[in-house]
Amino acid sequence: MLTLLVCASLLLHVLTFIAIRALQSNVQQLESRHQKDKQAYEAMLSSILNELKEENDRLLHAEPQPGKAYSQKNVEEKNSQPAPATEDDTHPASDYTPPQPVEEEDQVSMSNLSRVLQLHDQGMASVEIAKQLGMGKTEVELILLMKKNGENNRKS
Questions:
Q1: I want to staple 110 with a disulfide (CB 3.0 to 4.6 A). Which of 114, 116, 134, 149 is the partner?
Q2: Closest CA to 40 of 118, 152, 131
Q3: Maximum Cα–Cα distance across the chain
Q4: What is the pTM of this model?
Q5: What is the pLDDT of residues 127-143, one digit of tens each?
Q6: Which ranges constitute the DSSP H helices of 1-136?
Q7: Is the dihedral of CA 74, 79, 80, 83 positive or negative?
Q8: Which candidate, 57, 46, 44, 58, places its Cα nearest to that of 137?
Q9: Distance CA 6, CA 14 (A)
């Protein structure tokens, strides 16, 4: 009887050890996948940050184009001129009735996120989506990567 109990105990210990080892292996796989995802996010965000820095530098160092921007002198001249009197200034305040707002139908506009996901579901590549929506390629790829990781997290 004692031999049977020792064998059963030994068998339970071996099964427990196997189960612990399998769980430890799963945890290590999840940690390595998490680390890879983290590195992918960091790489994507650093490339976006570099693109933004380059664009900011380009915009800071770009000279204003004539006809597109007002010079400081033109702005000062406009501000120094008195505003012309209008017909509304000559009427008494009691005759004034504010204009009634025109009711417009509500228009539903899709966010960039939903448009990117919709176009991706239609089978468009990230470069095509970026061109069509006027977004950066890395921004589109980041949105798609976040969607993919969100789906993977829901599955596991």
A1: 114
A2: 152
A3: 114
A4: 0.36
A5: 899 888 888 888 888 88
A6: 2-61, 72-80, 87-90, 112-121, 126-133
A7: positive
A8: 44
A9: 12
